[in-house]
Amino acid sequence: MRDDAELLAAHVAGDHDAFGELFARHRDRLWAVALRTMGNPDDAADGLQDGLIAAYRRAGSFRGESAVTTWLHRVVVNACLDRIRAGKVRAAEPLPDDLDRWEPGTAAVPDPADLAIRNERRAAVLAGLRQLPAEQRAALVLVDMEGHPIAEAAQMLDCAEGTVKSRCARGRARLATWLTENGLLQDGTRHPTGTSDS
Amino acid sequence: MTETPDEELVRRALAQARHTEPMPAEVLARMQETLTGLGAEPVATVTELRARRRRRTAMTGLVAAAAVVVAGVGIGSQWGSLSGGDGLTTAAEAPAAERDVAEEADDGATEPASPQYYQAAWVITEESFAEDAARLRGQIVNLSSGQALGLGGSPFDEGYADQPEADEDHTAIPGSDAGQRTLREGRMSADALKACADQMRAAARGDSVPVSWYGTPGWLWYLPPTDGGQVVNLIVCGEPEPVLSTVLPAP
C-alpha cells in the first residue's frame, strides 16, 4: 500500500486515482476540523471543498517539509479561514445532528439523563466556540479538540508555535468566561445550570 | 501564560466535543463529484506572485522573501461553455449590472457603464483563480478607453457617496456545479474605489474585469493571447506588481 507521500507524488505525476485515495484516508478528520472551525455543516462543506480543490491543484508545491496530512489540514484550515474572513459564512445555527446518540446494537445503553446533560454541555461548548475569533477557534480545534501537538498545529496554521499557544490560551480564557456567564462552568463541576452537585 | 483551572476544564470540554462521526454521505458525494470534475481538467500553470506573501503577512506579520511557483490545474473543460458567456451572463441568471457589462463587451462598445456596476465586482480567491479568470473572460471590458470603468472620473467622484457601503453580497453564480463554485458577486465600498482610481487610471490598459481581492478592489488584466495561451494577471489596488498570474488556453 502506498503511503501518503507516495500517493501525492503519484497524483502530481498524473495518477488520476491517487488523490482520491489520499483524500479518502483523511477525509473524516478533515471534515471534523472543517465542521468545528466553520460551525455548521453547510459552511464546513464549502470550506472543505475549497480546500480539496486547492490541495488537488497545489500538490506540486508540497515540499515534504511536513507530513502530508499536516499539509492537507493546513490547506483545509486556510480555506475555511479564508471563507470566514471573506464573510462567506451562514448565520450560526444549532447542530442537531452533532450530538451524542445511542444506536441500537451499541454496547452500553446510556442513562437518558446523562446523555441529555452531555449533549447540553457539548452544545454549549460548541456555541461558545462559535463566539471566538476564527483564528483562536481554529487553534483550539486543532490542539484541544483534535489533539495535534503545538508544533504541528503551527504548521497547519502557518504561524509560530508561540502564536498557537497564545491563541489557545486566549481562546480558552474567553470560552471559560463565556461558559461561566452562561452558568455552564461553575465551581469546577462543569454542570449546566440547575444540575450542579453543589 | 498560566492556565487557570477553568481553562483546564475548557480544554477537557473541548476534547469531549470532538467530532467523531464520519463525513456525512451527502458531503462525501459532493467531494467525490468535485474530485471527478477536477480530474477532467486539463493542466495549466498558475504562478503565485505576491499572493503567498500577502497572506503570510496578514497572518504572521512577516514578509516572504521570494515568489513561489506552483503547478496547478487550470481551466476545466466544464468551463468551456461558460467562458464564452453562457453561464455568467444569461439574461435570466446574471444580475442586471453584469448583463449590462456583458452586452457592452459583446458589442465591443465603449459606453460608460452604470455607476452601480462599479460597486459590483467578482470576488476572486487564490484557490480558484484560474477558473475564475477563465469564466470572467466573457465579461471583459476594455480599459484602454478610459471610459468603460469610469476612468474619466465621474463614476469615482459621483454616484457612490449616496450608495450604502456594502460588503460582499455573495450572490452565487449559477450555471456551474450546481452553484457550488466559489466565484461570487461582491461589492466594494466607494472609498476603496476612490482610493484606487489613480492607480487604475495609470495602469489601465487592455482587456480587464473588475474584481475584489479580500475586499480590496482590483482587476483581472487579460494580455493578448500568444502561442495558444493567454496570460491573466490580477492587479490589486496598492500593489505595484501583479498579485496572481495564470496562463489560460487561448480563447
Structure characterization notes:
The complex is a heterodimer of chains A (198) and B (251). Chain A has 198 residues and is mostly helical. Chain A folds into 2 domains: 4-85, Rna Polymerase Sigma Factor, Chain: A (Orthogonal Bundle), CATH 1.10.1740.10; 97-181, Arc Repressor Mutant, subunit A. Chain A is 64% helix and 0% strand. Chain A has helices at 4-12, 18-38, 41-58, 68-85, 112-130, 134-145, 150-157, 161-181. Chain A starts with a helix and ends in a 17-residue tail after the last helix. Mean pLDDT of chain A is 82; it is low at 99-107 and 187-198. Chain B has one domain. Chain B has 10 helices and 10 strands. In chain B, strands 1, 2, 3, 4, 5, 6, 7, 8, 9 and 10 form a 10-stranded mixed β-sheet that branches. In chain B, strand 7 (207-213) and strand 8 (216-222) form a beta hairpin. The radius of gyration of chain B is 21 Å and the shape is flat. Chain B starts with a helix and ends with a strand. Mean pLDDT of chain B is 55; it is low at 42-120 and 143-188. The chains are: A mainly alpha (198), B alpha+beta (251).
